[in-house]
Amino acid sequence: MSAPTHPGIRTTTTGVDTRLPWWALVLPAAAFLALLVLMTGSDGAQATPGELAGGRVLEHLWQTLAL
Q1: CB-side exposure of 66: number of CA atoms within 13 Å?
Q2: How far is it, in rounded angstroms, from Cα 20 to Cα 16?
């Protein structure tokens, strides 16, 4: 006699659950946004008065993605 499975769990033919929990996507995105806000929101710690940290980060991202 087999035991009933939980109705909310979807399994494939191999028997492995392929769904991600909601927090597996939300937590890394929230951590990234929090760090980005901390980096760009530090107005008092500018090394040069005319350059923003957020602009430097975005410039480095564009240069990296342009490879």
Answers
A1: 6
A2: 12
Structure token pair of residue 6:
């939980």
Residue 30 φ then ψ, to 5°:
-65, -40
Length of the chain: 67
Token digits of residue 1: 């006699």
The shares of helix, strand and coil residues in the chain, as percent rounded to the nearest 5, are 50, 5, 45
In angstroms, the CA 67 to CA 65 distance is 5
Q: Assess contact for 42 and 34: CB atoms under 8 A.
A: no
pLDDT tens per residue across span 10-61: 656 776 777 888 889 999 999 999 888 887 776 655 555 566 667 777 888 8
pLDDT of the residue at 46: 54
